[in-house]
Amino acid sequence: MPSRRRAAAALAALAAAPLLPTPAEARSRPGDRARGAAADRARITAAERVSERVLDLTIDSPALARDGHARVLLPRDYDRRPHHRWPVLYLLHGCCDPGPGWQAWTLNTDVEGLTASLPALVVSPEGGPAGFYSNWWNDGAYGPPAWETFHLAELRPLLERALRGNGRRAIAGLSMGGFGALSYAARHPRLFRAAASFSGVVHPLRDPAGVQGIVQRYGADPTDLWGDPTAQSALWAAHDPYTQLTRLPRGYPVYVSCGDGNPGPLDPADRPVDTLEQGLGLMAQDYVRRARAHGLALTARLYGPGTHTWPYWERELGRALPLLATALARP
Question: Are 196 and 214 in contact (CB under 8 A)?
Fold first, then answer.
C-alpha cells in the first residue's frame, strides 16, 4: 500500500506543472483561445489509488469553476511498465444517476472484468447529472459549466502527460454519454479513432423537449444548455450527433445499439414498457440510416426487446470492446 500511495503522489506532482495548449488547440474554433487559456491552469490536485486498477483523480478545473473528477481503470501491468505509454478509452456516464457519475460504470457493471485484458487506460470522467457533454450557452455568455473544455482541453492533456496516454483514443458511453461519445467524435473527428453509443441520445433535435426536460429537472433553465431549439437551431444542430455525423470520414468505426423499450431477456418479468428507450430507439434508427448512407463503418445493434437499464449497457460494452480495442491498437 505505501508504494501505491507514493505512485499516486508522484502522479499528482507530475500533473501540477503548467499545461500548455497544443498548436491545434490554439488554432481551434473562434472563441476557443479563452477556453485554451483556462485549460492552461487545470491541475490534478489529488490522485487516490482506490485499488490495484482503480485511480480516482480530482482536477482543479477553470472550465467548471470548481473541482472535476475522473475514475481511471489502469491496465493490469501499468505499474510493471513504468515507461510504457497507453491508449485511452473514454467511457462516459449517463444522466440522472443517484451516485457520482464518474463512478457509475464501476458501481453498476463489471467493467473491471470486461476490460481486464484491455491494454489501455479506461477513463470515466464526470459529466454532471445533466451536463450533456457541452459548453453551456448560458444566454450567449458561455462560461461554466464548460464540460467539453473540461474533458477535451483540460483532462485529455493531463491524462496523456501524467498517466502516460499515447494519443490513441476511442470513446463510448450510455444514454447521455452515448450522445457525448458520438457528439465529441463528430465535433473533433481527429481526436478519436472509434466511437460507441449504447441507448444514446443520438438525435436530440428529434425531441428537444425531452432534452430540455432533463435539464430542467436538475434545476437549470432549459435554454442555458444550447439556447432555444428554434432561435438557436444552429447551436442545437452543431451538437446533434445525427446532424454532425457527416464530419466523420467514410469508413470511421461506429457502434450504435439500442432496445425498443419492450421488456427483454435481461428484465424482470413484471417490467413495464420503457417509453424512454422507445424514443431513443427511434433516434438510433435515424442515425443508423444516415450513417450507412454516409459510408461509416457502422456496427448497428437495434436489438429489439430491451429497456433503458444497466444490464443491457454492460452487455453492449462487452460486444463493442473488440471494435474499440482494434481501433486503439492501430499504429
Answer: no
- Between the CA of residue 130 and those of 142, 215, 222, what are the distances in Å? 16, 6, 11
- Measured between alpha carbons, how far is 290 from 295 in angstroms, rounded to an integer? 9
Identify the CA nearest to 7 among candidates 101, 74, 89.
74
Interatomic CA distance for residues 200 and 183, integer angstroms:
10
- Region class of 59: left (phi > 0), else alpha (psi between -120 and 50), else beta: beta
Which strands sit side by side in the sheet containing 43-49, from one edge to the other?
A: 43-49, 54-61, 66-73, 121-125, 86-92, 165-174, 195-198, 253-258, 297-302
**Residue 120 has what pLDDT?**
98
Amino acid at 304: G
- Rounded to two decimals, the pTM is 0.90
Alpha-carbon distance of 39 to 63, in angstroms, equals: 7
- Residues 225-281 have pLDDT tens digits of 999 999 999 999 999 999 999 999 999 999 999 999 999 999 999 999 999 999 999
d(CA 68, CA 65): 9
